[in-house]
């Protein structure tokens, strides 16, 4: 890539130093602090660091960290790829990631939904991937219809290629102002934010067993997808009609959807599925998610679920009963301070297995489970919860954001 | 009750259920069932007519655009107003609370015509009120201290024919030191949490209105009470 101006070089170097310091002093992975220092020194740094690279932005309310990781792995087939692997998904994190790997000709950045218009405008990214939009941390996030409108405005102003999940009506509406779009039928399990047409407010007609949707009152309907993740099969059909078994190590339907988006994105860079599937299959865990840790002869697996759509996906990944599940819920800033969303999750699927409840807001969850008729026991933390479970065997843990980070810390970041 | 069953009508879950509002329905259902009151819930999508034979009508929170759509559809339908004239109860939260008044603030703050069930008018305030709320309920209603979470930009002015539901101890509420309001059997509040999960006393008030009784037999409230103690202790302890 071309030389950065001197000021920007210095700012990037300062950022790198701060990041290294933050890591060395054990205060984190350094991905945010370094970027903040860099941005203070040179606000235009992000633009300069992104220039002359082929850049992919990935945004959604669910699955963006994992999809970012899958696309990064796929594009490594072509050369060096800079990425914000630790989920620091605002501009400071982007600066850190790009400065860290200044020579890489490719970059894949996870972008917070609210920041997508700004980051797209700043970087002029060549490709944007949109997975879904669902209710998320309502006390601090923008409302999702409003967010979709802002995405529309942003795509109307830049020439970028969008790869979008056609099964999500709000994502489809947002993407449809872009100059070119690859539509991927990637599925949508959580539908409670898309019963109404974002164009006219009319009812969207859709069936439980079918991804198709259409407005009853206007012409807005699901575009014809060129990539299709087949319902109930681990198969992706490419634009030529060839079928590819994904066979990812990452579990669950949501990750198959992420894999389908990653395949479509790789092809936009000239990489057909045959060249990247092996790389996607090598991904075993993403920032601690889906990894198992051995503790007291138990195999404890960590699942992150940040919002109702995420919980629904996590339930789909659980080992069948009687494998116990530990649920952990906090309500710190990054989680959203309002726990009302617990009532949007249907916990009844957890009946028939031992359930333990922990986290700073375990009483909110306890009442929720009581009303859902799911027997449970309270626990102080994951170890305390595990101690009340049968010895040996598997245990699944589902935690929201800061609860998840606390558990990782408890486990010494072994995961 | 109109019939042999308590009929709960959840209005427009496709537009107004953004903040866990289903919880209010689930809590009412469960508190009825635990008292052996047969209960039936009807989920009414926005494309469908409002059934007029319900006992309790629930409206939840929502974003600006869905709120405007919901108000327009409810006005056109007219069924909710006829149910209230007949004596049905209404429990409306946040966006739902605003839209049962005469006017509320739209996406750009423009005035939008409400359903006009009660004499309140809402407009857009200066800043967003986000956070825990604690409020003391009108003693007439015999409901313990309210706990909940508010997240709105509205300021609500109460007309002479409605009474404030409560006076705020922590939080913003209507914006004048009061929170929510009621008039007859129509009750509105900014409280999420959801409100009836955090405040089973409020749920029982609605049930007693619907059943036409003064008091209801007590039921086991262990988990409600533990959550209330924790929330009230934490929020008031921060003062
Ligand atoms: Zn339409």
Could you walk me through the main structural features you see in this protein, from its secondary elements to its overall organization?
Chain A is α/β, with parallel strands linked by helices. Chain A folds into two domains: 6-281, UDP-N-acetylmuramoyl-L-alanine:D-glutamate ligase (3-Layer(aba) Sandwich), CATH 3.40.1190.10; 292-410, Alpha-Beta Complex (Protein-Tyrosine Phosphatase, Chain A), CATH 3.90.190. Chain A has helices at 6-24, 33-41, 45-50, 64-75, 91-100, 116-123, 144-157, 169-175, 253-268, 273-281, 308-317, 362-372, 382-387, 401-410, and strands spanning 54-59, 81-83, 106-110, 127-130, 161-165, 180-185, 204-206, 213-215, 227-229, 235-237, 243-245, 292-295, 298-304, 325-328, 355-358, 377-378, 394-399. In chain A, helix 2 crosses helix 5 (91-100), helix 4 (64-75) crosses helix 10 (273-281) and helix 7 packs parallel to helix 8. Chain A starts with 5 loop residues before the first helix and ends in a 5-residue tail after the last helix. With 239 residues, chain B is an alpha/beta fold. Chain B has one domain: 3-Layer(aba) Sandwich (Rossmann fold), CATH 3.40.50.880. In chain B, the strands form two sheets. In chain B, strands 2-1-3-4-11-10-9-7-8 form a nine-stranded mixed beta sheet, with helices on both faces. The N and C termini of chain B lie far apart (43 Å). The interface between A and B is medium-sized, with 31 and 35 residues. Zinc ion binds next to loops of chain A.
